[in-house]
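We treat protein structure as text, and this decision shapes the records that our systems exchange. The tokens are whole numbers drawn from a learned vocabulary of local backbone shapes. Below, we set out a record of this kind in full and without editing:
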Amino acid sequence: MSAAAILVSGGVESAVLLAEALRTHERVYPLYIRKGFIWETTELACLRRLLRSFQSDGLAELTVLDAPVSRIYRAHWSLGRNRVPGARAPDTQVYLPGRNLLFLSLAGLFCALRKIPVVWLGVLKGNPFQDARPGFLRRMARILKDAQGTPVRIAAPLRKLTKGQVIRRWDGVIDWKKTFSCINPIRRRHCGRCQKCGERRAGFRAAGIADPTQYAH
């Protein structure tokens, strides 16, 4: 295929999606949606480092799109106004309202204007949120076509895999030390105590692979 856009954050799934897209597409466009969350400065710096590790002429320059949500979210923990969910918190506590709705609306417009036929996102097996379900993604693709007249397919290539399965399958292909998945970073390091750090540790344990991450705690 000629081109694909990838919604990236710099985490495990982002790295795998980039590697797979570069293997199957001539041109890959990484997209980062900046919303004003407390972890984004560190996340974006780590993402840029991750992108530099891919030596490919097919990788386009990172596009950063701004969609600030502070006026909508108000006192949400993601803005630093409440305690960040801890390592043992359930997935429901780290839900970001409208996340994929915003992501896919902006990514769909980006793709339509550039005639990019598909956008990828890193949904995993067991994701409990409504805006990550296959039915929502299919309906969202129809809405994008209706709104713009240009079809943009939404693909979630990892949705049948757990994080542990992803790590095990792509171990040796991806340098996991260059990935980042923390919602409360400390001096540009994984905090080791937030829900996403707990999920990351659990993924490496499930994969049976030593976790190379340097956690602050």
The longest strand covers residues 27-34. The helical segments are 12-24, 40-52, 70-73, 99-114, 134-148, 163-170, 195-207.
